[in-house]
Amino acid sequence: MDKKLRRAVIAGNWKMNKTPDEAVALINEIKPLIADADCDVVACVPYVDLFVAMEAARGSNLKIGAENCHWAEKGAFTGEISAAMLKAIGVEYVIIGHSERRQYFGETDETVNQRVRAALDNGLKVILCVGELKDERLGGITEEIVRKQTKVALANVTEAELANIIIAYEPVWAIGTGLTATAEQADETNGQIRKVICELYGKDAADKIVIQYGGSMNAGNADELVARYNVDGGLIGGASLKAPDFAAIVKAASK
Ligand code: PGA
């Protein structure tokens, strides 16, 4: 097996941070620092920032994504945004199933699957998040949890469509806590997710799918994490809001 089968992806998840003006300033700061990146670089930003973010990123190697999308094409879903709407304004990526959506907004494996389906149907690239809670890791059921999340999220997704799916393994206990999974833990769980993909779609698909790690990844620990065979980049929260830190992670993934 050859890691060169996969190109690493570093994606920022800005969460509920940055006004449009602040978004443009941050993107202008990031752009020159990542100009020679040898990996794909994405910034997933709040809905209201998407338009100006795409404008600011135009002509650079920074791609822009959203942080969620609804499964319906349109309709009476007050406050929601459809995948078709994102596609219509030129958005390329969308995060789906982030643990904060699961924890605070009632997202389930089933609604994650519906959103994945809608995103793929509308030609978006999906960053699908899976990951266990602290008690689940302590209880020794991490593999069981990520297997189920991955399988349900990918129900009715074909092998060809997998080319538009990135999986982000994000242990919930490591998100925004300063606690990072060790490189061994990240590699092991990412490997378990790759095994599920192999069971569902075969070895070729498993070798090709990009599986990121996310959870307090930063300029100091990125090198060790992305050096692992099964860690194909990262989904970065806090550190993606600081251009030099984000750029250092991009550099680590470019080696
Ligand atoms: P963090 O967030 O890097 O701040 O831990 C990661 C994420 O939630 O995607």
Describe this structure in words.
The chain is an alpha/beta fold. It has one domain: TIM Barrel. It contains eleven helices and eight strands. The protein has an eight-stranded parallel β-barrel with strand order 1-2-3-4-5-6-7-8, surrounded by five helices. The longest helix is centred in the last third of the chain and has 19 residues, at 183-201. The chain is globular, with a radius of gyration of 17 Å. The mean pLDDT is 97. 2-phosphoglycolic acid (PGA) binds next to β8.
Give a short overview.
By secondary structure, the protein is an alpha/beta fold. It has a single domain (9-253), classed as TIM Barrel.
Overall tally of domains = 1
How many β-strand stretches? 8
Shape: globular
Helix content: 40-55%
Largest sheet: 8 strands, parallel, barrel
The CATH H-level homologous superfamily = Aldolase class I
Distance between the termini: 18 Å
CATH class bucket:
Alpha Beta
Approximately how much beta-strand content do the residues carry?
A: 15-25%
Oligomer: single chain
Strand order of the largest sheet: 1-2-3-4-5-6-7-8
| Poorly predicted segments | none
Order of helices and strands: EHEHEHEHHEHHEHHEHEH
